[in-house]
Amino acid sequence: MRHRDGRPHGDVRPHRVSRPHRHNLLIAAAGLLGGLALWALGLRTIQDTRPLTGAWVLLPVAVMAGLETLRRTAPRTTVFAGTLTLAADQFTSGSLATVLMFTDLMYAAVLYGTPAAARRIPWTTALVTVAVPIGLVSWIHQVDALLIGVFTGLISFGPATTGALVRNHRDAAEAARLRAEQTALLAEMDRRQAVLAERARMARELHDMVANHLSAIAIHSTAALSLDDEATTRNALSVIRENSVEGLAEMRRLIGLLRDSGSGSSSGSGPDGGSGSDGTVPAAAPTLRALDTLLTQARTNGASSGLDFTLDDRRTDDRRQDQPYGHQDTATALALPAPVELAAYRIVQESLTNALKHAAPGTVTVQLACTKRALTVRIDSPYEDRPGPRAPGSGAGLVGMRERVALLDGEFEAGPVTTGDSGRIWLVRAELPVTERRGTA
To answer: Distance between CA atoms of 100 and 92, rounded to whole angstroms?
Structure first.
């Protein structure tokens, strides 16, 4: 950490620069010109006769102006030399410019000096301010000597105290900035630790879900390679196939849950790049049984836009007509793998939100159909000119839906379609396999 002037933080030594600061040169020039102007006008601070008169008064002015150029680089030296110069000025007719530049040197000595000097100088000047009038009154026995004490305080204690206040304020501001940076650093460390902890949790979850299947695959593949027996080999290959399919399903379910929990609810922009949700976060793994609630909420939100929403669920009839499921009851026939239900729910949710934002007045239809091989999700929404402005699409919604379908090795399409009955519609169609395809691991 460094100061504004480039010094490392905590370095109490005065910083060194190759040449005087521009502000110091301006102060020195102003003091010198002021002293020349006062001398030209015949203005002086001492009215009685002094040993050195006339242009001698410009010598302390010039020395003070030279010291002003070093007020930041050598504050301790300048305040010491400035005190001697002010004492020497008492032998001349005196100049107000010399006094004012001395006060600035005292101020700079506290502001730019070491912390020890910043603490000592105000106390020293305070003692001098008190001691001078007491000593003069005791010596000359005149109350007028108190005025000299007041003048001493104005040119020494006052600037030193002001410098201390400004320095304390700057130090407090610097400390606050450092605390803010440290807080940000701690927050970043906490975030990284949270990420590492989450990765460790994911690794444990992955191990618990997949290790069993991989262990069985390893054992039976070793047996198939070691034993030259057709029955044993066929048995081993069957077990390997079964564990491969189950392990892959578990992997897909885990990936789907992780992706979903990371986003919670997505946002989108319309048919060309839709939205994810209405701002609510459903259950960690919602199912298609919650579609009625989803459509009810969509009807409420879309009533003012002239939108209606209907659900055409053909899964029961389709499954009952499918031979392999002919002898199953309804509850069993409608059961779907968890990743398929999650993907289907999210696709419907994305599409309904897009329709609420961008569809023309009309009816949005959600259709579900299921066969022995796949679950088909289809959403039709009116795609005509809609009154009022449309939000531009970012493509995030379509990308998310396409990724969900690709994760299950399904098929996905989305875009405008012209139909003979209802004109143009925006069609979203996803086909999600409910059984593992042959030839896939």
So the answer is: 16
pLDDT at 104 over 80: yes
Tokens of 382: 């009116």
The pLDDT of residue 169? 92
Edge-to-edge strand list for the sheet holding 411-419: 307-313, 362-370, 374-382, 423-433, 411-419
Tell me the pLDDT band of 18, cut-offs 50, 70 and 90: low
Q: Does pTM top 0.70 for this prediction?
A: no
Q: Which long-range contacts (CB under 8 A, 24 or more apart) does 147-151 make?
A: none
Residue 161 has pLDDT above 80, yes or no: yes
CA 159 to chain centre: 43
φ, ψ at 384 (rounded to 5°):
-125, 180
Return the bridge partners of 429, or none. 378, 413
- In the chain, the number of structural domains is 1
Q: Does residue 299 sit within a domain? A: yes
Does residue 60 lie in a domain region? no
- Residue 260 forms beta bridges with which residues? none
CA-to-CA dists, residue 26 to 15, 62, 83, angstroms: 20, 14, 21
Domain containing 296 — which CATH number? 3.30.565.10
Q: Is residue 174 part of a domain?
A: no
Residue 233 lies in a domain: no
pLDDT of residue 412: 92
- What residue numbers bound the domain in which 395 lies? 264-433
